[in-house]
Write a structure and sequence with these properties.
Blueprint: E1 3-14, E2 17-28, E3 32-36, H1 43-50, E4 58-63, E5 66-67, H2 73-83, E6 84-87, H3 99-109, H4 113-126, H5 142-154, E7 160-164, H6 172-187, E8 191-195, H7 199-204, E9 207-212, E10 215-219
Helix pairs in contact: 3-4, 3-5
Bound molecules: adenosine-5'-diphosphate (ADP) and magnesium ion (MG).
């Protein structure tokens, strides 16, 4: 069985407080996982550990068969930039850049600027943003900001997309469009892990997990 990534017995503590306890999961090629759970349950923390944005206190994250525990900062940065696409809960766009420029940021960081420029425009157009390419974040609605963030995550065709409540604040038609685009990457043998409060979106994922008080349990299909 080919895993894009595995989380093995990960626990996370902030000081005395334990946020995650013995969390394990595997993401196979072509698979989508949805994680639901109460606010403050550790969903965003888990995504950030999977995406190598922060380290677990205990346990390991295995990426494409490699234990990431032994990697130095240079290798971790390269993996984050090339293996993962992030859709953050608070979009984290750069306010001084336009929508198009924000989508291009991962390409600039990995020196793929020219080849990615056409794709950046295509992605924004696909999300109905072709009239807003040169708007800055403060001139866009929350739904439009989320679409820019999604285009940025998809730009370099990462192996795994990590999406934190990607359809929040979107009207149903746009939410469906965003969900389609996210799930589409699984058809190419890639993987998706999404955190959501939206039961309709969770139901479209292959596997559903519930995170409660730091413990992850697999759910039957909704
Ligand atoms: N950097 C941090 N330092 C201390 N506590 C944190 C930090 N990040 C998150 N927490 C705490 O961890 C808990 C889980 O947060 P989070 O992962 O954001 O939950 P969720 O995404 O499920 O709402 C919360 O109680 C939050 O206050
Ligand atoms: Mg969260």
């Amino acid at each position: 069985m080919k895993y894009l990534l595995e989380v093995r017995q990960v626990s996370k503590c902030y000081g005395e407080e334990r946020i995650l306890t013995d969390v394990s999961l595997g993401l196979q090629s072509g698979q989508s996982l949805a994680i639901t759970g109460q606010s403050g349950g550790g969903k965003t923390t888990l995504l950030s550990i999977i995406g190598l944005l922060q380290q677990a206190t205990y346990g390991t994250v295995i990426i494409a068969g490699h234990d990431t525990g032994g990697l130095g900062p240079h290798d971790l940065t390269a993996l984050r930039a090339n293996y993962f696409g992030f859709v953050f809960q608070r979009t984290r766009l750069v306010h001084s850049l336009t929508a198009l420029e924000n989508v291009m940021v991962p390409a600039w960081l990995t020196r793929q600027g020219k080849s990615a420029a056409v794709r950046a425009q295509e992605l924004l157009s696909r999300f109905g943003m072709e009239q807003r390419l040169h708007y800055r974040p403060q001139e866009l609605s929350i739904g439009q900001l989320r679409r820019v963030a999604l285009a940025r995550a998809l730009l370099l065709r990462p192996q795994v997309i990590l999406a934190d409540e990607p359809t929040n604040d979107l009207d149903p038609a746009i939410a469906a469009e965003v969900a389609d685009s996210l799930l589409e990457i699984c058809k190419e043998g890639k993987g998706l892990i999404l955190v959501t409060h939206d039961p309709a979106l969770a139901a479209r994922a292959d596997v559903n997990f519930y995170l409660q008080q730091g413990c992850l349990t697999k759910q039957g299909r909704i």
